Amino acid sequence: MSAPPTDLQAAFITALRGDAGPLPPGPRSLPRDEVAETHRRRIIAGMAQALTTKGLAHTTIADVVREAQVSRRTFYELYDGKISCLLATYDACWEQTMGFVEAAVAPDGRTWQERVNAGLRAYLQLMGAMPGLARVFILEMPSSGPEAQSHIRGVHREFAALLTRLADEHRDALPEGVTLDPLVAIGVVGGVNELVVHALAAGENPDTPLRERTAMRLLLGAMQPYDTLR
To answer: Which residues have a Cβ under 8 Å from the Cβ of 27 and sit 6 or more positions away?
Structure first.
């Protein structure tokens, strides 16, 4: 049974669609690329909505075009099937997620730890608000093949780059010897991902103070000077 929609989940899917309302029937005066972009955004939002309520295995192209209010012909003009649409939806959703996290860590006089903690909290909040999509992208999608796994690794690299960028921005304020190597940042992102994996697999909400504190401990532990680990 799917979880009831949350305000944040509804806002997230609405943002995917943007202002791309259904196009009126009949001849159109809009440029061809603008029409295609409108359809693309509606299909991505439709896929996200279908995945939210039905999961990956049970979502069909018929579900997507119904949610998107486009024809199957329009769908196949843009995507060659369910997986290509899934990957496009994944990329669009994670671009939006990164924007959500970036807004949470915006420089505003807070310390490095306060900014990073706000980013981790925002990420967990979003995962908790959209359990259906989170389950698809974090639990189900890794088994969808090498291309899907490549997209997932790309997202992990983006999150790791954000963490290292934040550490670099506060380098002068960090204790001597404390740094965040890019490879270590990848490990931290993997650890935070596993926290969400375990929560979703157990049917639990990943957005809890305990998981937020644990994610922060993973990061702080990973940033200890190497000589303290010998």
So the answer is: none
Q: Are the C-beta atoms of residues 83 and 64 closer than 8 Å to each other?
A: no
Is 50 a residue whose pLDDT tops 70? yes
Residues 195, 149 share a domain? yes
**Is the pLDDT assigned to residue 24 strictly greater than 80?**
no
First to last CA, the chain: 49
Same-domain status, 145 and 218:
yes
Answer yes or no: do 202 and 167 share one domain.
Answer: yes
CATH number at residue 199: 1.10.357.10
Q: Which of 219, 230, 215 is nearest to 170 (CA)?
A: 219
User: For the stretch 193-209, what's the b/e string if a residue is b when 16 or more beta carbons lie within 10 angstroms of its beta carbon?
Assistant: bebbbebbeeeebbbee
Start-end of H helices in 130-208: 131-134, 146-169, 182-201
Same domain, 48 and 108: no
Q: What pLDDT band is residue 18 in, cutting at 50, 70 and 90?
A: confident
Number of structural domains in the chain:
2
Question: Can you say how many angstroms the Cα of residue 220 is from the centroid of all Cα atoms in its chain?
Answer: 23
Residue 26's domain spans which residues?
7-82
The mean-pLDDT minimum among 3-7, 43-47, 125-129, 199-203 falls in 3-7
